[in-house]
TrEMBL record:
Keyword vocabulary terms for this entry: Carbohydrate metabolism, Lyase, Schiff base
Enzyme class: lyase
Subunit structure: Homotetramer.
Cross-referenced Gene3D superfamilies: Aldolase class I
Name this protein carries in UniProt: Sulfofructosephosphate aldolase
Residue numbers annotated as active site: K193 (schiff-base intermediate with substrate)
Record GO biological process: 6-sulfoquinovose(1-) catabolic process
Pfam hit, one: DeoC
SMART domains assigned: DeoC (SM01133)
Length: 291
């Protein structure tokens, strides 16, 4: 079986300009915060995700979807434009302690064979990193995930996201991101999706130095996500991260969050979100051309 390569999810420049619409309960909370009618139904989320795929995928090198709310609908409606690739989230979120995602396991309901048959190119796994939890368990989950992907010719994308320890130790987010990279940055995945240092804030030099420190510990291509970064700062974050060694982004909120809850979703996505994604893609191409 032919294995897909990273070229199957990049722009012609070799950079990644990938859109995420796999947010689940977090997206429901965003609609609620935007004043959407209560309760925010599953259908509201599905409709938004499918619309985002239709309107925005022409400007993305790949789009990340979730099985719970939109994968089947996106495939059935052929919502993803060519040549945008499809990535499927293969993480099952377990709520607890008052938060929607307290722990994560590999989603046994995601069928990699079916994903490949449907034209999908990659799977993605969220890995929650806490300093007081067993690194062996995290590494074992990543190994199993990589094996699952590669056995079916799919790319493996891991997304380590740091969380405060379960027991009340002090939490240094920036150091935690580095420690997670030391642990998981050479774990055999194809692509590492990481939180932007300093949440994209601070001077360009401070951001660059923090991103360079991160780059030292990731032994695979890496991209940044946009959660926690002000959407106005995200273009700079992409530029600085790529200067430090990143190869692009896999992001959702910086592209479409300002559209959540607005009327005329498709029109708003076209007028507000699409230009943001286009501009981010241009930054990726520009930075790749400098290499």
């Amino acid at each position: 079986m032919n294995r897909y390569t990273l070229n199957d999810i990049t722009r012609p420049s070799g950079g990644f300009a990938m859109l995420a619409v796999d947010q689940r309960e977090a997206m429901r909370l965003m609609f609620a915060a935007a004043g959407a009618a209560q309760p925010v139904t599953d259908q509201v989320l599905t409709d938004f995700k499918v619309s985002a795929a239709k309107v925005l995928s022409p400007y993305a090198s790949a789009i990340l979807v979730d099985q719970q709310f939109c994968y089947r609908q996106v495939i059935a409606q052929r919502a993803v434009a060519q040549p945008c690739a499809t990535i499927v989230a293969a993480d099952a979120f377990i709520p607890g302690n008052g938060i929607p995602v307290d722990s994560v396991v590999i989603d046994k309901h995601v069928d990699p064979e079916a994903v490949r048959r449907d034209g999908g190119k990659a799977l993605k796994l969220l890995v929650l990193w806490r300093s007081d939890e067993d690194p062996g368990q995290r590494l074992e989950m990543v190994r199993a995930f990589n094996q699952l992907c590669h056995a079916h010719g799919l790319l493996s994308i891991i997304e380590p996201v740091v969380r405060p320890p379960r027991r009340g130790d002090r939490f240094d987010r920036e150091q935690a991101i580095i420690e997670a990279a030391k642990e998981l940055g050479d774990s055999g995945a194809d692509l590492y999706k990481v939180e932007m240092p300093l949440n994209g804030k601070g001077t360009q030099q401070a951001l660059l130095e923090a991103s360079q420190r991160l780059n030292e510990h990731i032994n695979m291509p890496w991209v940044i996500l946009s959660s926690g970064v002000d959407e106005k700062l995200f273009p700079r974050a992409v530029r600085v991260a790529m200067q430090a060694g990143a190869s692009g982004f896999l992001a959702g909120r910086a592209v479409w969050s300002s559209v959540v809850g607005l009327p005329d979703t498709e029109l708003m996505l076209r007028d507000i979100a699409a230009p943001k994604l286009q501009r981010l893609g241009e930054i990726v191409d520009e930075m790749m051309a400098r290499r």
